[in-house]
Structures are given as structure tokens and as C-alpha cells.
Amino acid sequence: MKTFVITKKGALTALFCALAAVAGITFGVRGARAVQASAAKRELPIYNVKTDEKKIAISFDAAWGNEETQTLIDILKKYNVKTTFFVVGAWVDKYPESVKALTDAGHEVCNHSNTHPHMPKLSQEDMEKQIKECNEKIKAVTGKAPVLFRPPYGDYNNTVIKTVEGLNMYPIQWNVDSLDWKNPTPQQIADRVLKKVAPGSIVLFHNGAKNTPAALPVVLEQLQSQGYKIVPVSQLIYKEGYTIDAAGMQIKNLTA
């Protein structure tokens, strides 16, 4: 039977090694967490705005059909409401008269890409091309270059957001989706929007959805009766001095 004798020096050495191992594990975990936190950081568009005012924005995406655009313009005029239409460059090519009618009616015409691709699948060069070409087409009709961009399908990644911001534009999403493109009944569209809307909301409709013209008056009447002011998106968002939280809410920075 062997007998092991532990000297004072050996005990101290063993203790030092144990402490070093524990410190290494702790550092490794913390380091891994730091790397994870860095990797998890995601650039976000503006989904909605933090505000104490009863103010919201209504927006329409226009990519394909055009049958209901003038009807929507007429309804919005009746309620004295100005909104934002995010249009695809190819739609501008097909319906320049409607783009002009939107501008003449006081609505904001903004960028929804040139051909409605999934932007994250593109190179950064092609992302810029999609945005710039649409901007040029809109400006040629309206005389004004857009400052807002909404990615098609609501599909984005960090490169998309940084590309938009690099062009001195604001990436815009939404936090109230009417789902009108699924063709629910007008009442279902209205109920969904009115249930979810809150100060600072950005609401999404589509110009080509068949039941939106019937739902829109209900939505506008209810919101106005509740004291909401409805404005174009560019009049809702903050242009400087803001942060965007993890949920995509734009928050005005507190001044010193």
C-alpha cells in the first residue's frame, strides 16, 4: 500500500491551480456571453413611435394592382386624412398617373424597392440599386425624392438597414397589420386594426386589397372619434436624436 505525503508547498500549488481553473471557467462563460451579446445585436427599422400624443400613421403598400387607388384617395379626402403610400418602382412605371394623383392629393409617396425582391438575398450593391432606382422614378413623377423606405415582405437584415440609413433614409416597418391582403371581411379588417392601434402606431394596408375600401371609413371614423390625429409616416417619426428599442419602437432621446 502506497502512502502519499502532501507537503505545504504541494498543497499551495494545488490550491492555486484549482483557483485558476475556476477563474478560467468564469472568464470563459463571461467571454462567451459577451460574444453572444455582440453577435445577437440586430439593426431594426422603425415599427412604431413612443409618444404621449394620440397620433398615428396609416400606410399603404402598392406593388401590383391599381384598381382601388383612386377610391382610397377619395375616401381619405372625405375624412381629411393624409397618409403614406410605399410604392414599387415597377408600379410607378405602370401607373405614373396614380402616383401623380397621390401627390396632388397631399399624400406621401415613398420607396418600396424597384422590383419587390427579398432584400436580404441581394448584395449590398444591388440593395442600393433597388432603392436608388425607385427613388429616381418617384422623383421623376412627384418632383421629390423619398426619405422613407419599407422593405418588401417586411424582410430585412442588418445590411438592409445600414444600406438604407447610409442613403440618408429611414427604414420603416409597422406594428399594426390589417392583413387585408388575406381578404378578410371589411369588419374583420376594421376590428383587427382598432383593437391593436395605440399612440405612435404605424398601420399597414395595401392599395390592392379588395375589402380595404369598405373597411377604411369604419377605421377612420372610429379613430377620429377617439381623438386620434392621423398623419403621414414622416410626420410621426423623429428625424434625429432618437434610439430604437429591441421591439423596434423609436424613442426620443431625453435632452440634458
Quick rundown:
By secondary structure, the chain is of the alpha/beta class. The chain is 45% helix and 15% strand. Strand 2 (55-62), helix 2 and strand 3 (84-87) form a beta-alpha-beta unit.
How does this model look, in words?
The chain has 256 residues and is α/β, with parallel strands linked by helices. It folds into 2 domains: 1-41; 48-252, Glycoside hydrolase/deacetylase (TIM Barrel), CATH 3.20.20. The chain has 9 helices and 11 strands. Strands 2, 3, 4, 7, 8 and 9 form a 6-stranded parallel sheet that branches. Strands 1-11-10 form a 3-stranded mixed sheet, with no helix packed on it. Helix 6 (158-166) links the parallel strand 5 (148-149) and strand 6 (170-171). The chain starts with 7 loop residues before the first helix and ends with a strand.
List keywords for this structure.
single chain; 256 residues; alpha/beta; TIM Barrel; 2 domains; three-stranded mixed sheet; 9 helices; 45% helix; 15% strand; globular; disordered N terminus
What is the secondary structure topology, with strand pairs?
Layout: H1 8-40, E1 48-49, E2 55-62, H2 69-78, E3 84-87, H3 89-94, H4 96-104, E4 108-111, H5 124-142, E5 148-149, H6 158-166, E6 170-171, E7 176-177, H7 186-196, E8 202-206, H8 212-225, E9 229-231, H9 233-236, E10 242-244, E11 249-252
Parallel strand pairs: 1-11, 2-3, 2-8, 2-9, 3-4, 5-6, 7-8
Antiparallel strand pairs: 10-11
Helix pairs in contact: 2-8, 5-6, 7-8
